[in-house]
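Reproducibility note. Readers wishing to regenerate the assembly model reported in the main text can use the exact inputs given here. Chain order matters: entities are listed in the order in which they were concatenated for prediction.
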Amino acid sequence: MFEAPTTSAPPEPKQEGAMPPPPSSAPMDRSEAERIVSETVIREHAPKADTPTNETGRDSASEKPLTPASEGTPEITGEKLKADLSPENRGFFSRMSESAHKLVTGLYERVYSIPGVNRVVGRIEIAFNQIWVDKHQERAIELAARIGSIDSTISPLEKSKEEIKAVIISLQKQGIPGSESLNSKVKEIEGTVGRLMMQRESTRIKLEDRNGKLRTCTEQRDVVANKLISHYGEQLRPIEAELDILRAHKDGADLEIAVAKARHNEQVVRLKGVEDEMARVKEILLETGMSEDDVEKFEAIRQMTGMLAGGYQKIRAEEESLSQKKALIEKKIGETRARTRPYLSRMQEFDRIKLNRPSAQKVPLNWESTVPEVNTEASAETESSVEGAESREQITIGSFIKSWNDYLLYKNGNRPIPENINENDFLNITHLSPEFRIKFDDFKNILENYFKSKNLLTDKYRRSINGFYGEIIVPKHIS
Amino acid sequence: MDEVTNNTNNQAYQNIDAYINPLLEKVRIIIGEIDVVNKESSAKMNEISAAVDESVAKIDLACSELDKAEQEASDEFDRIILEQAEDLSAE
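Running the prediction on these inputs yields the following structure tokens for the assembly.
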């Protein structure tokens, strides 16, 4: 005999009534609910179309989600976080539920525990964390499971209703009484199914609402991040341009010092020539029978000795002054480079977090070091022109340039190369006359700084200058 | 005899003065040139230093703009994070 099904509501989904769409015939378990959510929710919100993913299809950040710290002291973080928030956000934070407090303090705790993490980078780390997608997904899965549960309750009820209806028809055909009670049972089932359908619809709306919330949060987050990154890019361009200018200034200072040193060396050679002639005069005076003391008291000699010492002193003092000025310039440039470095590397951090891929290179700059370079040239420069002026013979700048260009043409088969010197440009930049006489060391020093200022100081140049010295200067003593 | 020696010496001193004076002039010229080189190189270095200060000031300004942008973005992110946490904890 037929047994009427129970019409009591299922335990899980509670209240409310009936609406389409049609329920499935099989009960839905959790994995099925996850599948539905994955297809409808996650595809929309998890990595964007332009977000690179790894071979598993999940973005790499999701492999290491930033989870709320399990250890630590949330109370301290809560206070720290409150102090770190804007007044408006602090007010919101104070009104938040305890569970929301726990969630955010855990996330901020993790960021605060990373030494030296920048404030905005920490925020982006949190805002872009997979945990939000996961939590939205978790809620969505719960809702989808609830829908599945309702469907799995409705389905047997519908089946029973159809069976009862068939029995009613059969009883009526046979003229057997009692179909009224079965009809009331059918109505009772229809009422229950109606309530369940309403309940299903209400849950479906919540699921859609959950999707919408995730979408809104993701969009808001992206808008803020994109605005920041765009603004950063705009501001970094002039910074990078000014850093290039600073580098050119540093090269300019190096070149200026090299030129001044070469001019001082030439002057020292001339002062020493006069000094030698003075030594001969002193010898003549001694031969006349004057004592050494009397010779030194000789007015013209005293005057000459004083002037020579003064000349050397002026050169020394100027070279020291130039060195100090250069050191100050380098210090300012070094400090500025160090100050800009975090901003330049932060841009990469933004991209890394936003694109969810690890940074290949932490600090990339077009500048090598934050610390002002150890001035290996300075030690050479501090050897004053006064002491080191008489190493090799002097020849004119014009001769050096011609010999250098000839040498390069000879070595490169008459093919012009960037290291060829444009004489007019060289003389214009160094303010030297082509007749200015100079030693090879000074020429080399000026040439290096000249090429450096033109970004041409390469290994090839170094090989060429060494070859020039070994093959031309030493053997031929060009003049 | 002494008078003869003195006259000879005086003559020698005058000859030496005549020899030294052009040397003194030569040194004066060199020192004048040293002054020119020093003045020029000093001026050039001061020029470079002033240009460096100008660039540094521009960079400082751009950095403070970035600080401001970071502050605003941080506050926006905080708002999104807090609202999201509250929303997810509410259910």
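We highlight two features of this model. Helices of chain B lie at 2-90. Chain B has one helix and no strands.
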